[in-house]
Write a structure and sequence with these properties.
Blueprint: H1 3-18, H2 21-35, H3 41-74, H4 88-112, H5 117-124, H6 127-139, H7 145-162, H8 173-192, H9 202-224, H10 230-233, H11 238-253, H12 256-262, H13 268-275, H14 278-285, H15 289-297, H16 308-326
Helix pairs in contact: 1-12, 1-13, 1-14, 2-3, 2-11, 3-4, 3-9, 3-11, 4-8, 4-9, 5-7, 5-8, 6-8, 6-13, 7-16, 9-12, 14-16
Length: 335
């Protein structure tokens, strides 16, 4: 199969898995509020980011050590020893995408407290438009009609899917923070595809990324905690541990390494459009997963329903991605 098509399908698959993180995170936050009442939703969200990526970094560090030893044994004593230590370029890549990603998540979560969820969902997809604009400015070449048309379709689909009420769309604190988060997500995508990182080991750079995201989130979590003991109380229950394990293994360890490895095989513009399939999958997942979680945990988290917005908005986003996939491979300077 064409490597570009393979990479695109893998990225769509990661978006499908990331979709499960929304009901999982929302359920864990509700349980955390029950365990440590009085804390803000931003504290709980930031604490989850810190815990999630701390565990991911630790497991990846151990796994990378095992991987290096196994490869060393499989090829015999000859050859240069394999190292778990990241190279300078892997440190640079991992720190960049980690800092962009963690700050983007924090801004997005804080902005959600000051604007409607539908507006946040719509504005977050702004990186699909910001990336081709950046590529156009840096390459000094206008995007083709396919890219421009696909961006318009994605923007329309995101607006329909989110159910944006245009009379409520104004630039207050929430909207500005969400837009800033979208800019950082665009920076994360663009940073990952930089040519000098082409020879990096994606496992080592992903380990650095996980560590950077954890170190960015922990100070904010402690600063936002109503009481230092709430750091432990908020996540201390069997229900939270079970949901967190699903979040960690299904939506983190199984997705971010794949995204970091395969995204550079497509253009940043195409990656931005592919990532816009995540809210489509999220809408589908929320049709049945919240009910399952509610039965297992006793939460009042009802399933959502199929609506015309899901069909129309999702169709626009999926059509845009099919359109961009069917175009011939771009020339080196095209986006």
């Amino acid at each position: 199969m064409n490597p570009r098509i393979t990479a695109s399908l893998v990225l769509i698959g990661t978006c499908a898995l990331w979709a499960f993180s929304f009901p999982l995170l929302k359920s864990i936050e509700q349980l955390g509020q029950r365990n440590a009442p009085g804390n803000s939703s931003l504290f709980l969200s930031t604490l989850l980011v810190a815990c999630r990526f701390t565990c991911a970094a630790g497991l990846f560090l151990i796994g990378n050590g095992i991987r290096c030893r196994w490869r060393q044994r499989s090829r015999g004593d000859g050859g240069r020893p394999l190292s778990v230590r990241p190279t300078p370029l892997e440190w640079q890549q991992g720190l960049g995408i980690g800092i962009f990603g963690s700050l983007g998540l924090i801004l997005q979560m804080d902005g959600l407290a000051y604007t409607e969820g539908s507006v946040s969902a719509f504005l977050t997809q702004g990186y699909a438009v910001l990336i081709p604009i950046w590529v156009t400015l840096t390459a000094r070449r206008l995007p083709g009609w396919t890219v421009a048309g696909a961006c318009l379709l994605v923007g329309l689909g995101a607006a329909v899917l989110a159910g944006v009420r245009w009379n409520h769309l104004h630039l207050g604190r929430g909207e500005l923070e969400t837009l800033a988060g979208s800019v950082l997500f665009a920076g994360q995508i663009l940073w990952l595809e930089r040519p000098q990182f082409a020879g990096n080991d994606s496992v080592r750079s992903t380990t650095v990324m996980f560590g950077a995201m954890a170190l960015t989130a922990w100070p904010l979590a402690f600063a936002l905690a109503r009481d230092p003991h709430d750091i432990v109380k908020a996540v201390s229950s069997i229900e939270i541990a079970s949901l967190f394990a699903l979040l960690l293994f299904g939506c983190t360890l199984a997705t971010f390494p794949l995204a970091n490895h395969w995204q550079p095989k497509v253009t940043a513009t195409q990656a931005g459009l592919l990532y816009c399939t995540e809210p489509v999958f999220t809408s589908v997942v929320c049709l049945f997963v919240p009910g399952w979680i509610s039965k297992a945990t006793g939460l009042n988290y009802p399933d959502e329903f199929v609506h015309l917005r899901l069909i129309l908005g999702g169709s626009c986003i999926l059509a845009a991605n099919v359109w961009i996939l069917l175009q011939p491979p771009p020339k080196p300077l095209d986006s």
